Amino acid sequence: MPTTLTDVFRGHPIHLPHSHQPDFTSLRELPDSYTWTPKDDLLFAAAPSPPATGENIPLIDLNHPDAASQIGSACRTWGAFQIANHGVPLELLQGIEFLTGSLFRLPVKRKLKAARSETGVSGYGVARISSFFNKQMWSEGFTITGSPLNDFRKLWPQLHLNYCDLVEEYEEQMQKLASKLMWLALNSLGVSEEDIKWASVNSDLNWAQSALQLNHYPVCPEPDRAMGLAAHTDSTLLTILYQNNTAGLQLFRDDLGWVTVPPVPGSLVVNVGDLFHILSNGLFKSVLHRARVNQTKSRLSVAFLWGPLSDIKISPVPKLVSPVESPLYQSVTWKEYLRTKAVHFNKALSMIRNHVEE
Ligand SMILES: C=C1C[C@]23C[C@@]1(O)CC[C@H]2[C@@]12CCC[C@@](C)(C(=O)O1)[C@H]2[C@@H]3C(=O)O
Ligand SMILES: O=C(O)CCC(=O)C(=O)O
Ligand SMILES: [Fe+2]
């Protein structure tokens, strides 16, 4: 039987201090354990991009006849873009935002009833990447893989069925959109369905799987010294992020520093993950990103993390490999890659990189 994301960390427990999750609303000062300096994260204080550069992540209209080449170009230069006219109903986006807000407004004691276990993927807790840092992040999260029924029943004894339907509908819409975006990006490189057999469009997407990550960044007394979610890349093919109307997401560009992604109501942020970087033989950039917090408005985000079934081998598309452009990466399944990432974190990509003899 093919393994799913639920099994990924079974043999690989990650020790996370969920039970120390504070009641953020009660903290008037930033505790020491939440105070970040460049020692805790080399890029913590890297220069923010000056607004005067005018360089901004592209906002792409999916109805534009040139959308494929705009997406391809954004994947190469930014590893990310925003999309408008994506076809996901506004009520569904509002619905998922409402669900996320209601979840995080529950008392800590209730949320901990659905706490993520050390060997599990789903449930409430601190960010999985917390184990790589000495300092705590100013956020809380809830991860959904498979059916959220059991967890939702513990959180909302009355309303859980409605919320399960909402998540199912959201995942269905995101899955269709993610596949459309992947093919638009690949088409821009001249790659078509014949080139990637496992990812056929006409397969009801039965080769793909996903996780939904709900994030909450509470109002913070000293935002400049705190970190919402530390710099990381996603392990996915693509991630589609809904953010509420509060800024906080930042992308790193070597030439610009940290660039804030402004919230555009109704639009979605898309970012290239490590597996798409591998598939494109390094042409698409797996973008380093993080979330900052602020003093006046709490922030919510919902990340749809999308990739292939755990046992599908991902390797650079042969068409993008030539005697000059040899395959940059070894082939890897999502499951193998998540395990490599669970050990080596931001060095995972370099661990599977082929070293070409000069
Ligand atoms: C499918 C997954 C991707 C993810 C690990 C996970 O098993 C479920 C949560 C995902 C997430 C969300 C926040 C950032 C991230 C790096 C993390 O720690 O958990 C990603 C993981 C990833 O993309 O590698
Ligand atoms: O909250 C955000 O803007 C970023 C979230 C994120 O990067 C993630 O969940 O992987
Ligand atoms: Fe992310």
TrEMBL record:
Pathway: Hormone biosynthesis; Plant hormone biosynthesis; gibberellin biosynthesis. Pfam families: 2OG-FeII_Oxy, DIOX_N. GO terms for molecular function: gibberellin 3-beta-dioxygenase activity; metal ion binding. Its cofactor is L-ascorbate. It comes from Microthlaspi erraticum. GO terms for biological process: gibberellin biosynthetic process. This is gibberellin 3beta-dioxygenase. The keyword Oxidoreductase applies. It is an enzyme of class 1 (oxidoreductase). Its EC number is 1.14.11.15.
